[in-house]
Design a protein that fits this description.
376 residues; alpha/beta; Aspartate Aminotransferase, domain 2; 3-stranded antiparallel sheet; 12 strands
Length: 376
């Protein structure tokens, strides 16, 4: 495919960023970084604390938080929150649903925690959904915490958000790459956590968690436990205490906060979660329809009800080299549509975030048609 002709300029999208994270950032978010006395100032002073307060209030409004739920945030990204959950939310044993790379990584972190019993794991192959069933054998140590992704970034499978276990159990849901692009009933979870570099069009290095009263209580319980050591950086109670002051335990990236706040305000002004989901689905539906009509491609996630509105994974037949297509398009300014590295399939994975223009997705399809016409 190195001999493929260049794409005609008139076919190219206006914005060629289709990555599944970090996602494209709107120009207005970048412009906001020029606000006086923000960048390069203390995160413990009012100008920055006001931004954190705006983020927390904005998410409260965006997700229509149930009574008693709180927005907490801290440094390190959703990966750090996995370790925080293992340290200060899981009491003794977790039950994990694994249907992709990120669910598997969290389950492995829990398995390696020396103070926890090995987790129960319900697993499904990539492209399918694993759902926790309480009928499964939990041996002599039942789970007190249930964890699963709302959305598996590596494959583009969406799970329903559902509560597990008895009244004392916690349900932790990884919403990293779907939070803000799909309506969700957060009363069905105790920790709905995510990073801002996906739907919220910001940078990484920050985690946000929407915590129920039960999660706050569990964190306080384990904070006072005498049989485990919880580093301050991994202590959910410490993070909550700092968040209530509209700050983080350690110095955050101010630009990440500013861009996230700008995105939240844009999302609210556009109409909130319903509008964000509609925008994303309009774009993803175009790509799924294209793949279904193709003679050499198909949607990787076979069940339509499980297909992501923001991460479209397309599987190609062997006659097509998807990696070569992605490389050729990158040279033309269409970037970051490679398959997820851990899945190892002949795929393209395309981000269709709420901030992605439908016209750009339509143009991308035209570019794919052009490349395939000359490649086959």
């Amino acid at each position: 495919m190195n001999t493929l002709p260049p794409l005609p300029p008139e076919l190219l999208p206006h914005d060629g960023r289709f990555g599944c994270g970090p996602s494209r950032i709107r120009p207005e978010q970048i412009d906001a970084l020029r606000r006086p006395l923000i960048m390069g100032t203390s995160h413990r002073q009012e100008p920055v604390k006001n931004i954190v307060n705006s983020i927390r209030q904005g998410l409260t409004d965006l997700f229509s938080l149930p009574s008693g739920y709180e927005v907490a945030l801290g440094n390190g990204g959703a990966t750090a929150f996995w370790d925080m959950a293992a340290a200060s939310l899981i009491r003794r044993r977790a039950h994990c649903a694994v249907f992709g790379e990120f669910g598997a990584k969290f389950a492995e972190e829990i398995r390696r925690a020396p103070h926890l019993v090995a987790p129960i794991v319900t697993e499904a192959p990539a492209g399918q959904l694993a759902r926790i069933s309480l009928d499964e054998d939990e041996a002599d140590t039942p789970a007190d915490t249930f964890v699963y992704p709302h959305h598996e970034t590596s494959t583009g499978v969406v799970s329903p958000v559902y509560r597990c276990g008895n009244a004392d159990a916690l349900t932790l849901v990884d919403g990293t790459s779907i939070a803000g692009a799909m309506s969700v009933d957060l009363s069905q979870s105790d920790a709905y956590y995510f990073s801002p570099q996906k739907v919220f069009g910001s940078d990484g290095g920050l985690w946000v968690a929407i915590l129920s009263p039960a999660a706050l209580q569990r964190a306080e319980e384990l904070n006072g436990a005498t049989d485990r050591w919880i580093p301050k950086f991994l202590n959910v109670s410490s993070a909550v205490a700092q968040s209530r002051k509209n700050q983080t335990l350690n110095t955050p990236a101010i630009a990440t906060l500013v861009m996230m706040d700008q995105q939240i305000q844009w999302m609210l002004a556009q109409g909130g979660l319903e509008t964000m989901e509609r925008r994303a689905r309009q774009s993803s539906d175009l790509l799924y329809a294209w793949a279904e009509s193709s003679s050499v491609a198909h949607p990787f996630v076979e069940a339509p009800e499980l297909r992501s509105p923001v991460v479209v994974t397309i599987e190609f037949d062997e006659v097509v080299d998807a990696k070569a297509i992605a490389s050729h398009l990158r040279r033309q300014g269409i970037v970051d549509i490679n398959a997820y590295r851990g899945v190892g399939r002949n795929q393209l994975r395309i981000g269709t975030w709420p901030a992605t223009d439908l016209e750009d997705v339509d143009a991308l399809i035209g570019c794919l048609d052009f490349v395939l016409e000359h490649a086959l």
